[in-house]
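Practice problem: predict the structure.
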Amino acid sequence: MAKLVVLKFTGDLEGSGFHVSLEVGSESQRPTLETTGFLPPSPSLADCLQQHWHEAYRSVGSPWNHRILNGLEPCRIRPKRITYNGAIERLQACQQSAKLVETNMRAWLKSPSFREVELQLREALSREDEIRVLVRSDCTVVRKLPWHLWDFVRRYPNAEVSLSPLAVATQNFETCHPPKARVKILAILGHSDGIDVDRDREFLEQLDRADVTFLVEPKRQDIHDRLWEQAWDIVFFAGHSETEEETGKIYINPDESLSLEDLWYGLRKAVDRGLKLAIFNSCDGLGLARSLDDCQIPQIVVMRELVPDRVAQAFLKYFLDAFSQGDSLYSAVRAARERLQGLEDRFPCASWLPTIVQNPHAVPPRWTDLFEVDPTPRPTSVGEMMPFTSERFSNSLSNVPSPTTTSIDRGKISFLRFLGVSLASVALYFAIAPPFANWLNHLGEKALMSERWQQSKHYFQWSLRVYPYSAAALANLGFLYEDTQELDLARKYYHRAMLRGNAAGCNNEARLDLEAGHVDRAAKLLKQCWRIVEPDNQYHQYAILKNRGHAHLKLEDYEAAEDYLMQAIRLMPDGGAADCLLARVWEAQGRQQDALEPWLACYENASDYYYEEEQWKRQAERQLRAAGIALPKQ
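Answer:
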């Protein structure tokens, strides 16, 4: 049984410090350990936390997108119009600020007056326990602290922290509700100017055993009607949001914003009918979470600060993957949060953002708690998969038929055995074929790198014979045919790879369209490529963003082109190709002086392998020489 740790903080960080009470016990049972302690005031921690979130963190990628929404800057934003100079310095300053917060917080939690509380906590728990740590406080600063950095949480791999207010009205969440065959999700895709909520939609559509109802930039009445019309297990929101004077708002369309208070009756009706979880994959969600007590929502997952679009998408994918595969809510949030660390070279403190806000009277559900499990006993062998009852056979399918067994029964038994062998063969194929095909594809890549064209082609073709669904082999064949100028075949294999979800094949097909002058088609295809690109594949993301910038340059949509190219440069500052295109964008806008710096980066970093990039480098050389800039040695 999972363990529940409740820490109540009464006081404030800057003045009086906190009186701390600790309770430890098993889930849904009375605590077996109760004790108290004290954490002293720490104005230095409060100051560096304030400075970190409001100055160092928010300055990364600033100025933010300046398309003003109802007089306020929109949230869950992609960095836009980033100043070319100083981005790396701001990133490093934010990372240093985060380290200072961590150092101060750890020193504070090691205060002698709190040490006994932590020692008893460790004695009462095992590292193998699944642990929910509920931090209850009304202090805003406590909610802003990165509790996952606490040494206790780090050392206990199955522990995760959630937040809750001190005073919460008692609510009976154990009321029985009619079971549903599938998980019911209401997904509100709100105002999305400048961000891509289509990725959120794709992740939700891929969920097993879920019926998802989407409301795209709905009106207020649309949301109310849906909340009242049927029972929901999960309510999801993606779009712009913000907290203003501790009140959270979501922007549901270009003209309307709502607080949870504006949805009070609908949300209470949803809770009464069994709503278990609300997810706000949007910015600055702690203000939204303050409405948890009033609306009685059992659990809310929010982002505690401004969240970059890419981080929001990655978190949702990682969380849904873990949660729908059987992890507890807390374990799924921890796993998804920790995976965000892979993005922190570009998006500092990404793993600090996801936060659970918990009603202390509720027990978090697992995915399988949200739908009715099929009561039919699951088969334990291939034979039992056939719809034959035990009355049809004397004991079991393995028994020898009696002399009175009819020819029909013998035929069924023969068919059953044939089916068992067939299913076993299929299972064996899918267990062996994909890794063997990957091995052949890898051999083909090695041969391709050594310019052994025929040998590499042979390996790629054999990879597809073994497993025709190998997207990587399809994309590699496309690259091989492009290298030998067989462009029709290259397009064919790139397209087949794209249909198998391969982002590289998709991007290369779009690049060929660009080179052929089919710019509109390329721009549409690149949007699809961005939807299927792997969240942790930096190179593929860079290539797609670079080509999206190139397409919009050709379309003379310079603002969008600049946006995509700047995102690419942030991902890979030494990529080169995006710098070449950015210089061309700025020159097209008459910003010749500004273009010199990206021209220099283009000259230094663009590849000599691709003909197009080689031409851009030559153009960069001409522009730099004309401006009297000394060129570095190549």
